[in-house]
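chain below, 253 aa
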Amino acid sequence: MCRMAKVDLARRAQIGQEKRARTRAALVAAAKSLFASRSIESVTIDEIVAQAGLAKGTFYTHFDDLDALTAAVADELVAAFDDLMQPDRLAIADPLDRIAFGCNAFIENALADPAWAQVVARMARFNPTIGEATRRRLIEDLRRALKDAAEPAPSLELALEIVIGLVLQALLAFAEKRVSRDDREPVLAAILRALGVDGRRIRSTLARLPKPALLLEAAEPTPRRRSALGTGGGRTGGGRTGGGRTGGGRSAA
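prediction:
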């Protein structure tokens, strides 16, 4: 009898964990959907819980504030994109070429999906826990690349700050259309130059950049590309949409 009670308690705890995970995922998905068609600043907690079909108090069980939820969204976006890049990245042997490839891929995605870039850039600048796996891979490549630098190179710690800082600033600039696609290679050259890479090597590295397979769609002149934040299509350009809600009871999970 005692053993059955322990099993029941363990199962109930597991069910509770699964329910909390589903609720958290629903909040993240709702935020992604709203961020896809609206600016981050215009989205409210009330709208997010309404989109998720949850009670407002549920939000604070999982997140301290809207910034914490936005950071969770950004972390998922970076992780998903980084995972997609890995087959192409791992096919490149040279660490400097890997760094350039990764930076270029993030910039290309910013050009193709500005909403994605704005969420990632704004949150990652102030939250170093976003994209931890991406940072670890970058550190590994930087450690190897700095050993072969032809000119005086920065420390590993400074090199990491340089690459992440310049890439995030570039993502935001491209997303906000303050710079154009023509500035992509100059940004990559500036990053490599800051790492102590000489001009000849910079030119050869940029010339060898492959076109990431996952970004081929972005390179095609298609009239519309689906954002990683939402389901694509039907965007209102900033207007608020209320379609698709059933008006059913809200969960307080």
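The CA atoms of residues 101 and 209 lie 6 Å apart. The longest helix spans residues 2-37.
thats it, cya
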